[in-house]
Amino acid sequence: MPDEVPPFTPARARHAGIVDVARLAGVSPGTVSRSLRGHQNVSPITRQKVLDAARELSYRASPQASGLASGRTRTIGVVVPYVTRWFYANAVAGAYDVLSAAGYDVLLYHLGSAEARDRFFERMPLTRRVDAVLTLTLGLTEEHVRALRALDIPLVTIGRRLPGVACVRIDDAEAVRHAVYHLVHQGHREIAMISGEKDEDGFDFRTWHDRREGFVDALASAGIEAQPELMPSSRGGIEGGAQAMAQLLSGPRLPTAVLAEYDELAIGALRTLRRAGVAVPGRVSVVGIDDHEMAAVVDLTTVAQPVSDQGAAAGRMLLDILAGAAPDPVDVVVPTRLVIRGTTAAPRRG
Amino acid sequence: MPDEVPPFTPARARHAGIVDVARLAGVSPGTVSRSLRGHQNVSPITRQKVLDAARELSYRASPQASGLASGRTRTIGVVVPYVTRWFYANAVAGAYDVLSAAGYDVLLYHLGSAEARDRFFERMPLTRRVDAVLTLTLGLTEEHVRALRALDIPLVTIGRRLPGVACVRIDDAEAVRHAVYHLVHQGHREIAMISGEKDEDGFDFRTWHDRREGFVDALASAGIEAQPELMPSSRGGIEGGAQAMAQLLSGPRLPTAVLAEYDELAIGALRTLRRAGVAVPGRVSVVGIDDHEMAAVVDLTTVAQPVSDQGAAAGRMLLDILAGAAPDPVDVVVPTRLVIRGTTAAPRRG
User: Fold this and answer.
1) Residue in B83, B97, B112 nearest the CB of A112
2) DSSP state for residue A7 in the 8-state scheme
3) B297 touches chain A (CB under 8 A)
4) How many angstroms away from the CA of A77 is the closest CA of chain B?
């Protein structure tokens, strides 16, 4: 998977100085620095002038010079909703390895709830403590994004696009389509989707919305109309998946297949089905999204996303922005792929 | 579980000044500070004089004063072998919540291998960056411990005792005894133990040794002699457990019960047994140690350890040491308990 992520150009040796670029572009050296570090308080026209001048002079800011410009803490702030969950822990580790190899330390913020997130943004402990910030799917509002931008340091996010901010993510609609098309190709028409909590711990995770919308769209493109009673939403995690599956089992019509918003929900659903004596995949097929480390253990068909790779790509992107080698906010979409295991099969006839 | 952890005295309001304590003890204020922060470069006699004087004057250093003394970074260094694994992620989160509530930031070091650990100790990036350090089961040598002590700041460790360092941990031998006695009470005599890698990623984890020794001792106290061919060691994690179980299945005598060093190995063993068509617990009982979040999902009998609580207890201990309220290295052992689920039963007769 890593080689499907667009490569980032490493910072090259410095040939021309920042003063040369400033002179050619007709701006101040500070404006050159801000333009090359992708800051928002530079007009597009000015930025273009600087980029043209930098290109003409083959100018690349060195990481050291860039570090000096941004306060040289040699520290990156990494902000996550939960460090204990599989996705976040692996994304943080992927970014950590890249940043650490480049000599950066990581100041970790594990928020745990939207209230803690809001307190964090009020207190803003990152001020003057870090050279750049990596945030992971925090359900940020415009106000939060403004607070981050006010730090005037490079910013990369994983999992969700924020206007004007570099991002590494998967295409949630694509991930859902992989799962739905797999079920449709097997002959399923009665397909349910179980989701986690809409506002877990107060976070308004976009994934919840994007995957549900993707599900309705994918069904529609297969000529199937989504049925609201087959889209229960429960609390999150394994217990939530177990509950949502019980809700489907207590309804008037049992679907032949269930898509879970993410693997932990699917694992909970499998537990309920096993306890209820419902054959998987004989009576009900189950598919998840993630390829969680436990998916292989329970033989779960799922749509895999490369999590550690997303962290590593985000880490490289931050280093490139710090080095002045990636001036524009980039939106990197890493591919997802279907992993077929033992929980999906053609529906039983009759 | 948290109420079984010995309570820590919170720092109280400051009544007498550090100078008063120094005068009464006949030492310098710096020696008072070092004594109360539990540093090693204070003789036991001097330390006792300071403690007596502090007690007589009801003196407690304030966290702020202590922060000033130690450089006032308001940051704690947290050093873990792997941030992606269940145990470490949950212990870090438990400590994080306590430290963050007290206004401290966390500088995270995720080492990943013994080589990275050794480079870390050579480079020692904690110097002047943190007020205190929390380390988690890193397989540290005396040299590493000396390097940490040379920082001259408070130090707490989780999972393994280091001479003169405050520690929060479980009693590994006790955890193993809970599991072995449970199996013996059910009538098992042919009991195997599967372990992970002895030197995973070069870390010499004490747990590997302590749990194996505990197993031999627990069997002996039940009048059973451990058999080396029933104690295979594989690589770690789920795949390792699957391999170790396959090794037992390919031996001349299949035991009636298997203890896994930790739950992920047990989960791998269950997968192998299911694929091999061996009934659990009918033919083979399986018990793990941890109560990993997936243990309930696969209905695994296990010995639970309170992981987040160990992190929280270590966090409180660091705050108390920083506040001068916990001068002596404390060894806090949190209790473990057996959780009986569906993978253990009496052995089939005949």
Assistant:
1) B97
2) P
3) yes
4) 9
Q: Among B338, B346, B290, which Cα is nearest to B177's? A: B338
Estimate the crossing angle of helix B29-36 against helix B18-25, to 10 degrees: 100
Whether residues A108 and B125 touch (CB distance < 8 A) is answered with no
Q: What DSSP line would sit under B8-65, residue for residue?
A: PPPPPPP-S-HHHHHHHHTS-HHHHHHHHTT-SSS-HHHHHHHHHHHHHTT----HHH
Cα→Cα distances B261→A278, B90, B253, B274, Å: 33, 19, 21, 20
| A-chain residues near B115 (CB < 8 A) | none
**All residues at 6 or more sequence positions from A93 whose CB lies less than 8 Å from its CB, including other chains:** A308, A311, B82, B83, B84, B110, B112
Structure confidence at residue A48 (pLDDT)? 79
Smallest CA–CA distance, residue A92 to chain B, in Å, is 8
Q: Is residue B91 pLDDT above 70, yes or no?
A: yes
Contacts of B224 (CB under 8 A, 6+ apart): B184, B189, B191
User: In sequence order, what are the beta bridge partners of B78?
Assistant: B108, B134
Within the 261-290 window of chain A, which residues sit less than 8 Å (CB to CB) from chain B?
267-268, 271
Burial B102-137 (b: 16+ CB within 10 A, else e): bebbbbbbbbbebebbeebbeeebbeebbbbbbbbb
pTM for the whole structure: 0.79
**Which one-letter DSSP state was computed for residue B346?**
P
Q: Which amino acid is at B14?
A: R
- Please judge whether B93 and A75 are an interchain contact, meaning their C-beta atoms are less than 8 angstroms apart: no
How many CB atoms are located within 10 Å of the residue A8 CB? 17
The pLDDT of residue B30 is above 80: no
- Angle between helices A307-322 and A86-101 in degrees, nearest 10: 40
**CB of B76 within 8 Å of any CB in chain A?**
no
Point out the residues of chain A with pLDDT beneath 70: 1-17, 36-41, 58-71, 327-328, 350
Non-local (6+) Cβ contacts of B20 within 8 A are: B57, B59
Structure confidence at residue B140 (pLDDT): 84
Q: Residue A297: which of B97, B267, B293 has the nearest Cβ?
A: B267
Residue-averaged pLDDT of chain B? 87
Any CB–CB contact under 8 A between B238 and chain A?
yes
pLDDT digits (tens, 9 = 90+) for B270-321: 999 999 999 999 999 999 999 998 998 889 999 999 999 999 999 999 999 9
- For tokens 């679907």, what's the residue? A255
- From chain A, the residues in CB contact with B97 under 8 A are 112
Q: How far is Cα of residue A24 from the mean position of the Cα atoms in its chain? A: 39
In one-letter notation, the amino acid at residue A202 is G
- Please identify among residues 95-154 of chain A the ones whose CB lies closer than 8 Å to any CB of chain B: 96-97, 100, 105-110, 112, 116, 125, 129
Q: Do A107 and B75 touch (CB under 8 A)?
A: yes
pLDDT of residue A13: 31
CB contact under 8 A, A108 and B109: no
